[in-house]
């Protein structure tokens, strides 16, 4: 069989991730590869750490990108902080809380589950009940921005509760970093992980993490070695630690880090608060158009993520057929529901470079055209004016 170079179609990515990658980032990734111990590369690593500290709003010295996707950032947090026998309270209100539970179990820990309905924020009262009932618990883990539902939980309140009961916290910020407020130092988050392919407008493959001194103290005093050699922070920090002298640990994904550096530089140029405001403004415009059409959100307004919108599929509409037509006819990708929400919702992302007015217009107009042709019970001709009015008022 004769193969040819792969030329991907040009898509507009408005699903749960990856999101559209900014051309500046793609250009940065095409620059010449140099060695992972080259002094010039090490200087760039230092800049990446500083820029990540800004994105996370932290001064944590241990702030860096793990050389793998967001799932590896999650594993890095759990593998380093959870030891066999540790009781870990895991708050689950969607798919990714379940993955936290899996990590606890694989590290030999004992998960204590706090369950909330999918589409709702984590209930602080339920967490406090679990903390009171399990005085031996040493860690609380929760998802700040649940990608499977578009629900955002009150991280500041949950962390404060955990600390009242002498627990460390592990926070999933994969979908929130760069799109909605995260204040690691102000909220006193102990360990946090994210991904590059969502609101940072970068390619998949890196996972920013940050650990404060409380978390590092637990890591230093482990009774057993970290079960993963690759993710053992005691070893990784020999490479990502401060200063010009670095110990070889692994060959970093050099060109991917060029891209992350550019993405973080762009975030700094825009300003964090401006990025948060842009995502909220565009969410309100998308919401106005979808609701005018007759579509409804599954998350209460106060708990909605602006960058990940879960909307109910109209009765009688074929989920897969709509998404297939959007992809094939409009080169537009939106996401399907996961787990209990499969076939019931669409997940529409407005993340990073994808959070633009022209993308909202494409999404609303193409959805309206397809649903109208399918005979769905929607209002026609009102969605785009509603969207435009919302943008003008923002």
From TrEMBL:
<dbReference type="GO" id="GO:0004760">
    <property type="term" value="F:L-serine-pyruvate transaminase activity"/>
</dbReference>
<keyword id="KW-0663">Pyridoxal phosphate</keyword>
<comment type="similarity">
    <text>Belongs to the class-V pyridoxal-phosphate-dependent aminotransferase family.</text>
</comment>
<dbReference type="Pfam" id="PF00266">
    <property type="entry name" value="Aminotran_5"/>
</dbReference>
<dbReference type="GO" id="GO:0008453">
    <property type="term" value="F:alanine-glyoxylate transaminase activity"/>
</dbReference>
<keyword id="KW-0032">Aminotransferase</keyword>
<dbReference type="InterPro" id="IPR015421">
    <property type="entry name" value="PyrdxlP-dep_Trfase_major"/>
</dbReference>
<dbReference type="InterPro" id="IPR015422">
    <property type="entry name" value="PyrdxlP-dep_Trfase_small"/>
</dbReference>
<keyword id="KW-0808">Transferase</keyword>
<dbReference type="GO" id="GO:0019265">
    <property type="term" value="P:glycine biosynthetic process, by transamination of glyoxylate"/>
</dbReference>
<dbReference type="InterPro" id="IPR000192">
    <property type="entry name" value="Aminotrans_V_dom"/>
</dbReference>
<feature type="binding site">
    <location>
        <position position="347"/>
    </location>
    <ligand>
        <name>substrate</name>
    </ligand>
</feature>
<feature type="modified residue" description="N6-(pyridoxal phosphate)lysine">
    <location>
        <position position="198"/>
    </location>
</feature>
<dbReference type="InterPro" id="IPR020578">
    <property type="entry name" value="Aminotrans_V_PyrdxlP_BS"/>
</dbReference>
<dbReference type="InterPro" id="IPR024169">
    <property type="entry name" value="SP_NH2Trfase/AEP_transaminase"/>
</dbReference>
<feature type="domain" description="Aminotransferase class V">
    <location>
        <begin position="34"/>
        <end position="338"/>
    </location>
</feature>
<dbReference type="InterPro" id="IPR015424">
    <property type="entry name" value="PyrdxlP-dep_Trfase"/>
</dbReference>
<protein>
    <submittedName>
        <fullName>Alanine--glyoxylate aminotransferase</fullName>
    </submittedName>
</protein>
